[in-house]
TrEMBL record:
One of its GO terms (cellular component) is nucleus. It comes from Herpetotheres cachinnans. GO terms for molecular function: DNA-binding transcription factor activity; sequence-specific DNA binding. This is HSF5 protein. Residues 5-141 form the HSF-type DNA-binding domain. It is found in: Nucleus. Its main location: nucleus. Belongs to the HSF family. It holds the Pfam family HSF_DNA-bind. The gene is Hsf5.
Length: 165
């Protein structure tokens, strides 16, 4: 098996969506897409709210600002696009309607109604629940990497350094 660098964007994202500590990210029903609650994501992972440490804030939500290099949701979405994720549009609106009460991302009593908002739905064929082995196929689509892929060359991911293993 090819080692996956835990510090690259896809690996961090996969770890976060599978972590029970974060409620702003979750798999869609099929396990083939990513659902993101923007207000809650900004609170938990971008430091746009109370609780700037890896511990529950006053609302009981884990906060871990600094996981990603960005501080804005727009930049996070740009990173998703650079790694080949595409937004799933399910009708006239560009956001997915949330799961409703009891599901933890919107409304409901189990999250105290905090940071309720629409869900953004993204998909990548190489980002699946229970398939971390696919992460090696997620490459940042830089100009140089696009040229290599167009030429049929392999684009290697950076392996973890000795401190990350």
């Amino acid at each position: 098996p090819v080692p996956i660098n835990p510090n690259n964007f896809p690996a961090k994202l996969w770890w976060l969506v599978n972590s029970p500590c974060f409620r702003s990210l979750r798999w869609d029903a099929s396990g083939e897409g990513l659902l993101i609650n923007q207000p809650l994501f900004e609170c938990e992972l971008l430091g746009a709210g109370p609780g700037h440490a890896m511990q529950p804030n006053s609302s009981g939500v884990a906060a871990a600002p600094g996981v990603f290099k960005t501080k804005t949701f727009t930049s996070f979405i740009r990173q998703l696009n650079l790694y080949g994720f595409r937004k799933v549009v399910t009708g006239p609106a560009s956001n997915v309607v949330g799961p409703g009460p009891g599901q933890g991302l919107e409304g409901g009593e189990d999250n105290g109604g905090i940071c309720a908002g629409p869900l953004h739905h993204f998909h990548s064929p190489h980002f699946r629940r229970d398939r971390p082995d696919l992460l090696i196929h997620l490459k940042r689509l830089t100009k140089a990497n696009k040229a290599k892929m167009a030429a049929g060359l392999d684009v290697a991911s950076r392996p973890p350094n000795r401190f990350q293993r």
